[in-house]
């Protein structure tokens, strides 16, 4: 079936927007996608790659590409940065607008970005919807807009402030309030979806985002390949539940609800009707990985294992720490009223499924971006930054106890720049002090492998090295447990001692 109806989607290079786009294509629609280009790839190439990663066969792209129109734009900019003509044209003849673009990082240092993308971006999309006049509006929010509440949350507007855990929750909540306010004022009937934590497809394990519970699975998987029989300790309340939802269920539900006229003006939770507890998850992965994983709640004085001995892995994904001790209960009355089979169509999250999402993540190397082939990087600002970092900035920190949390840090760590030839930088640490920096042939216990530009954002204190790793923009080679311990501890160092040379770095003559 082909129709002349066009659907506009933001965030189609992301997980939800990408799958929604595939769903709309399968239903015969034309797509108009707001997409940013990147340094290396055009917007069209990015979409092709994402569709392919999401499972679209290569030959299928040739068939559907004529139904995919791209609008190169950025939601943070007024009129998406388009000329007024291009913006008006983009809003013509639309049947629906799905807004799935968002900044989904939890990083507290990225407040401005969260506000710009999630709140300002939503305002710009709402203006666009007003321009599009006849289009229905579908807003992708999140179930986690009420912060640290343990209450029952209904599918109604939630007017904070709430004890939000991070800028993501706060800006998503405020963005949703923008939608409700705008719709009241303009008489629009938006539909708001609030998905919980999205993980791999229930049939294939497929995803393009290896964050949230993948961080835990990834570390546990790496530890399972080592001989140690020591227990692996994760700080979480064993009975607390985690609302995980296979992404295919979420996208199918968004799509099906969007096709029903009576969904206009309503809010729908897309949450797990019976979410697993941490102990269930931990037991499943203990069996799958043949590991002894234990949940320890540090605040539970009655817990006989406190303080437990073992390998504690929680610090590596501390951004999720607050989600490990309980969450709200999400009411599903409205979703169930519209989709009578909501509960029965929810996939069973059994051990086979947990194994499937692990296998897919391993097969895709946890989404690690392809390493650039070694290239001789010319002496540019970036290489100069790295050289100045290791030759001028770090030497001034030698033999100093700079942070108390580093006291137990010992060993040799290498920094490898994947886009540069030449020896790695070796950092020798003793009792938390940096004792030597070299480029000699020492054998490191672990290597932090990333691109020069990514390292610069870390060393400037703009990104956390462990998060960069979990986001797939860096790898840890060698002893992953040691590597995570080191970079998590060093994270504090990079933030406390950022290297931000004020003067423009000179580009040396070749
Ligand atoms: N994934 C989850 O677990 C989850 C759970 C609940 C709710 N949600 C919600 O679902 C929606 C989609 O999430 P997701 O997981 O699909 O996120 P994602 O994979 O991180 O994708 C985010 C998308 O937003 C785009 N984007 C970011 N900044 C932009 C800008 N300035 N201009 C234009 N596009 C921009 C990204 O484009 P680039 O590729 O160019 O960066 C990408 O296409 C979000 O609203 C999120 O809050 C997600």
Description:
This protein has helices at residues 15-26, 43-53, 58-64, 84-90, 111-132, 167-186, 213-224, 247-258, 278-289, 333-338, 342-345, 351-363, 381-393, 452-459, 465-470, 480-496, and strands at residues 6-10, 30-35, 68-72, 94-99, 136-140, 152-153, 191-195, 197-199, 232-235, 244-246, 267-270, 293-296, 311-312, 329-330, 411-417, 425-430, 433-438, 446-450, 474-478. It is of the alpha/beta class and 510 residues long. It has two domains: 6-207 and 243-272 and 328-344, Rossmann fold (3-Layer(aba) Sandwich), CATH 3.40.50.720; 381-496, SCP2 sterol-binding domain (Nonspecific Lipid-transfer Protein, Chain A, 2-Layer Sandwich). Strand 16 and strand 17 (433-438) form a beta hairpin. 40% of the residues are buried. Residues 503-510 have low confidence and may be disordered.
């Amino acid at each position: 079936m082909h129709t002349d109806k066009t659907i506009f989607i933001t965030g189609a290079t992301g997980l939800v927007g990408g799958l929604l786009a595939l769903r709309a294509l399968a239903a015969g629609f034309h797509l108009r996608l707001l997409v940013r280009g990147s340094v290396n790839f055009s917007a069209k190439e990015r979409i092709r790659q994402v569709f392919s990663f999401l499972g679209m066969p290569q030959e299928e792209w040739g068939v559907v590409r004529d139904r995919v129109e791209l609008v190169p734009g950025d939601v943070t900019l007024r009129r998406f940065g388009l000329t007024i003509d291009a913006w008006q044209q983009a809003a013509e003849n639309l049947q629906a607008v799905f807004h799935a673009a968002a900044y989904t990082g939890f990083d507290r240092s990225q407040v401005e970005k969260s506000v710009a993308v999630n709140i300002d971006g939503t305002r710009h999309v709402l203006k666009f919807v007003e321009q599009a006049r006849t289009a229905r509006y579908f807003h992708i929010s999140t179930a986690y807009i009420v912060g640290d509440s343990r209450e029952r949350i209904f599918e109604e507007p939630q007017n904070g402030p709430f004890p939000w855990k991070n800028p993501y929750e706060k800006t998503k909540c405020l963005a949703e309030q923008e939608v409700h306010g705008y719709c009241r004022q303009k008489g629009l009937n938006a539909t708001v979806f609030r998905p919980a934590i999205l993980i791999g497809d229930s049939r294939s394990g497929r995803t393009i985002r290896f964050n949230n519970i993948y961080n835990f699975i990834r570390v546990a998987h790496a530890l399972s390949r080592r001989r140690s029989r020591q227990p692996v300790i994760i700080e979480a309340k064993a009975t607390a539940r985690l609302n995980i939802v296979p992404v295919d269920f979420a996208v199918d539900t968004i799509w099906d609800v969007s096709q029903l006229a009576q969904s206009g003006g309503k809010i729908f939770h897309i949450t797990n009707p019976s979410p697993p507890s941490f102990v269930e998850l931990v037991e499943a992965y203990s069996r799958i990985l043949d590991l002894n994983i234990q949940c320890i709640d540090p605040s539970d004085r009655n817990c006989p294992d406190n303080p437990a001995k073992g390998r504690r892995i929680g610090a590596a994904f501390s951004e999720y720490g607050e989600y490990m001790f309980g969450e709200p209960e999400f009411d599903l009355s409205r979703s169930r009223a519209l989709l009578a089979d909501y509960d029965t169509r929810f996939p069973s999250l059994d051990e086979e499924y947990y194994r499937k999402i692990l296998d897919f993540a391993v097969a895709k190397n946890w989404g690690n971006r392809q390493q650039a082939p070694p290239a001789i990087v010319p002496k540019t600002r970036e290489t100069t930054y790295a050289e100045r970092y290791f030759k001028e900035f770090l030497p001034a920190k030698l033999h100093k106890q700079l942070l108390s949390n580093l006291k137990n840090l010992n060993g040799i760590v290498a920094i490898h720049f994947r886009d540069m030839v030449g020896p790695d930088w070796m950092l020798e640490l003793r009792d938390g002090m940096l004792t030597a920096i070299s480029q000699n042939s020492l054998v490191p216990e672990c290597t932090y492998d990333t691109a020069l530009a990514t390292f610069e954002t870390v060393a400037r204190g703009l990104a956390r090295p462990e998060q960069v790793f979990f986001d797939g923009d860096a790898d840890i080679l060698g002893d992953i447990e040691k590597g995570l311990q080191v970079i998590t501890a060093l994270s504090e160092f990079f933030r406390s001692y950022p290297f931000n040379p004020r003067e423009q770095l000179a580009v040396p003559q070749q």
